[in-house]
């Protein structure tokens, strides 16, 4: 498999390195806006902007082998920008048939659970937040892809995830 450095050099030379980079990191880049629960349209915008930023900053990348980390950070910044721009509006797809509304008590319980979960998640370290978002929204990613994206050692992904989940569980329980 070609290294990121080799692929970037090939792309700069006009060869097919770009397609290989997109194939390698596409799912990872998509996982970031999905983890922020952006609408499909906003997630697609973040995805495209992330790749555009890479094209614009290609000559300034100092550590091509840490490209996954760079892409996650860029997509995260883009996602946060979209959230700030859009506020907290909820996007409804007008083409989808409307489902029956849940009972008010179900809504209250669900909202309370979500509030406690998000409040607890925001108290975790940045690394735990990123790791748990990727795990929740892109479970198909391998440990190697997650390690590359977050700049972690491959052998520490599972144990770190376990510690982060245990910490999150304790914090959610403390918010009851």
UniProtKB/TrEMBL annotation:
InterPro entries: RNA_pol_sigma-70-like, RNA_pol_sigma-70_dom, RNA_pol_sigma70_r2, RNA_pol_sigma_r2, RNA_pol_sigma_r3/r4-like, WH-like_DNA-bd_sf. This is RNA polymerase sigma factor. Keywords: DNA-binding, Sigma factor, Transcription, Transcription regulation. The keyword DNA-binding applies. Residues 21-88 form the RNA polymerase sigma-70 region domain. It comes from the Bacteria. Belongs to the sigma-70 factor family. ECF subfamily. It comes from Lentzea pudingi.
């Amino acid at each position: 498999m070609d290294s990121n450095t080799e692929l970037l050099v090939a792309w700069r030379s006009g060869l097919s390195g770009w397609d290989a980079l997109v194939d390698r990191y596409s799912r990872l880049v998509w996982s970031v806006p999905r983890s922020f629960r952006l609408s499909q349209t906003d997630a697609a915008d973040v995805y495209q902007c992330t790749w555009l930023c890479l094209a614009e900053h290609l000559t300034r990348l100092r550590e091509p082998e840490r490209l996954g980390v760079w892409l996650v950070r860029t997509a995260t910044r883009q996602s946060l920008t979209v959230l700030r721009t859009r506020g907290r509006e909820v996007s409804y797809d007008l083409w989808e048939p409307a489902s029956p509304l849940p009972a008010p008590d179900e809504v209250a319980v669900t909202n309370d659970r979500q509030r406690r979960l998000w409040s607890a998640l925001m108290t975790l370290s940045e690394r735990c937040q990123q790791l748990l978002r990727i795990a929740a929204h892109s479970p198909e990613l391998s440990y190697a892809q997650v390690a590359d994206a977050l700049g972690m050692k491959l052998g520490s992904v599972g144990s770190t995830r376990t510690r982060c989940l245990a910490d999150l569980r304790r914090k959610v329980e403390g918010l009851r």
